[in-house]
Amino acid sequence: MPRIPTVHSKTYVTPRRPFEKERLDQELKLIGEYGLRNKREVWRVKYTLAKIRKAARVLLTLDEKDPKRLFEGNALLRRLASF
Question: Where in the numbering of this chain does the Small ribosomal subunit protein uS4 N-terminal domain appear (predicted)?
Answer without folding.
Answer: 6-81
